[in-house]
C-alpha cells in the first residue's frame, strides 16, 4: 500500500512540475470548449442566391422579393444566362440558383402546375441539403400566403401541406448541443490514452523503468500506481468539462450524474488500458504518438460525432463494435441530452466494462513479456 | 557458498550470440570487475544477473537463489546502477532517494550508515531537481539510490564511462569504502586501468570469457617480453611489420608502439633493431616495460 501511495505521489509531483503537461490539462479543454462548438456548426447562416427569371411577371418578381426578405438568403441579383451562373458558382460567388420558367404566372393562375429549377453548389453537401430545404420553405410559404390573400382555393399541393418539425432533445436544432458533449468524450479519451501512453514510454526512454524493474515491486503495483493518478486526472477533467458545459453553453445533464460519472470511470479504464498497451508496444514517444493519433482519428470519425453511425455502411458498423468511443459517445448523448436512465445504456456500459478488462489484461501481459 | 555462481550460460539475440558458455563465481566481499570493450556482452550479463533478462540456457545463482525462479527475492537484496543515468530528472534529490527507499520498503533514515559519506556531499543540493545536477553528482545520487536498501550485492554497469579522471578516482574510493562495509561489488568497465582496482577481474570479448584471475596474476602470467618505443609514423611502422619474421605481437599504444617478443630477448631484440635499420626507420629508444592489463588483454586475445 505504501508503495502504491508513493508511486501515486511521484506521478502527481511530476505532473504538477511539468508546466507543459499542466497547461495541456487545463488550457486544452477550455480552448476546445470555446472554439470548437462555434466552428463545428452545421447551421447555415447566409446563403448567396441568384435568379434567372424567364417569366418576368408580377408573381415571379414577388417570389424573388420573398427570398430577399428572408434572413437566410443574400440576393446576388438577376442573371440572364445559365453559363454566367455556372461561372459565378465556380467562383464561389453564389450557392444557389433559382430558375423560374416561362409562363410561371399563367400556369399558376390556371392551376396548371409548374416547375421551378433549383441548382445548388453541392461541394458542401450539408450546406446544399439544408439550403434546399430553406429554398423550398420560402417558395412554399410564398404560395401559401398568396393563396390566402387571393382566396384561391387550392393553388398547389404545397399550399395545403402544413409541415411542422419538432426536434426532440435538441429543440432549437442547436448543433452546439451535439458537439459540446462530444468534446467531453474527446477530452476523456485524450487524457486516458494519450497522456498515459506518453508518460509510460517516457519512463522507458529515460531508463527509469529499468531502475524500477530491479526493485522488488510487482508489475500490478507499478501499473496501479500509474493508473490511479491518470484516472483521477481524467475524472477531474471530465467534471471540469461538465462545469464548463453548464457555464458556457448552459447545457444541463438531463440524466443522473452519478450514473454518468460511473460510466465515465469505466470508459477511462478502457482508455488507460489502451494507453498502457500502446506504451508496451512502442519503443519511444514518437511511435506512441503515431499509434494513438491513428487510433484516435479512426475512433472519432466512427464515433458518430460528425456523422450518425446509423448511416454508415455495414463494415463500418462492424468495426464500430470494437470502437469504445462510439459506445461512450452514445452514452454521453443519451445521458446528457436525452436524460436516459441506466437501463437505457446498460448494454453500452457492459460492453465498455468488458473492453476495460480485456485491454488491461493485455497491457499487464505485454508488460510481463517485455520485462521478465 | 559463493555470492554469485554462473554456470554455462548462453544468450542469443537473433543471429548474434551475445554470451557464450559463461562460467563465473564471485566470492563474498570482493570487488569483481568485468573488463572488456564495448559490445563484448558486459551489459547483457549484467541484465541477467540483475534479473532483468533470462538466459537461454545455463544456470545463475545469486546469493544461492535462482535468477529466474526467485527473482523477486533477489531484487530485494541487490543494488543496481545502470549504465545510463536513470532517475527522475524532475524530482529533487531527496524525492528520488525517498522514492526508491519506499520501493524497497525501507526509508532514508534506516540505512544512513551505508550511504552517509556520499549523502553528505549531496545534502547541499537535496532540493535541486536531479536533472540539474552535475555529472559527478548525478552519479553519486544514483549510487545512493542503489544502496538505499542496504543490498548485499552491488552491480555497477560502466559507472565511470564519460566521467572525468578526478571523479573516476573519487568514485573508486567510494566503491572501496562500500566494499569495506561488507558489500560485494560487481563492476563492469571498458577502461583497462580501472581493472587493477578490482580484486579479481574477468576479461570478456565477443561474449566469451577469456580469463578470470587477480589483476596481479594476469600481469605476471604475461608470456612475452614487452618493449615500447616512440615513433612518429606508427601507421607506416605497422605496415612494415608485416614483413618482420620473428614471432611477436605488436600494436600501437597511444603515440607509442608496443612489441612483445616470444623468442629469447637476447636474440630477438638485435634482429628487430637491425630490421628497423635496414628499412631506414627512425625511432626512439626501445625500452623494456612491465605489461599492464591492456597488454595482457591483447596478448590473451591474440593467443586464442
Please provide a brief summary of the model.
With 372 residues, chain A is mostly helical.
Structural descriptors:
heterodimer, A: 372 residues, mainly alpha, abc type-2 transporter like fold, 2 domains, four-stranded mixed beta sheet, 4 strands, 6% strand, elongated, B: 304 residues, alpha/beta, Rossmann fold, Alpha-Beta Plaits, six-stranded mixed beta sheet, four-stranded antiparallel beta sheet, 11 helices
Task: Name the chain pair with the biggest interface and residue counts per chain.
Answer: A-B, 22 and 30 residues
The 3D shape of chain A can be described as: elongated
Biggest β-sheet strands, sense, barrel of chain A: 4 strands, mixed
List SSEs of chain B in N-to-C order: EEEHEEHEHHHEHEHEEHEHEEHEH
Number of domains of chain B: 2
Radius of gyration of chain B over all CA atoms, rounded: 23 Å
How are strands sequenced across the largest beta sheet of chain A?
Answer: 2-1-3-4
Descriptive account of the structure:
The complex is a heterodimer of chains A (372) and B (304). Chain A has two domains: 2-40 and 174-370, no CATH class; 47-160, abc type-2 transporter like domain (abc type-2 transporter like fold, 3-Layer(aba) Sandwich). Helix content of chain A is 68%, strand content 6%. Chain A has helices spanning 2-17, 19-39, 58-69, 82-90, 104-109, 125-150, 157-160, 176-206, 208-213, 219-249, 257-281, 285-302, 314-320, 324-338, 346-370, and strands spanning 47-53, 73-78, 96-100, 117-120. The longest helix of chain A has 31 residues, at 176-206. With 304 residues, chain B is of the alpha/beta class. Chain B folds into two domains: 4-219, Rossmann fold, CATH 3.40.50; 223-303, Alpha-Beta Plaits (2-Layer Sandwich). Chain B is built from eleven helices and 14 strands. In chain B, the strands form three sheets. Chain B has a six-stranded mixed beta sheet, with helices on both faces. A four-stranded antiparallel beta sheet of chain B has the order 2-1-4-5, with helices on one face. Chain B starts with a strand and ends with a helix. The model of chain B has no long low-confidence stretch (mean pLDDT 88).
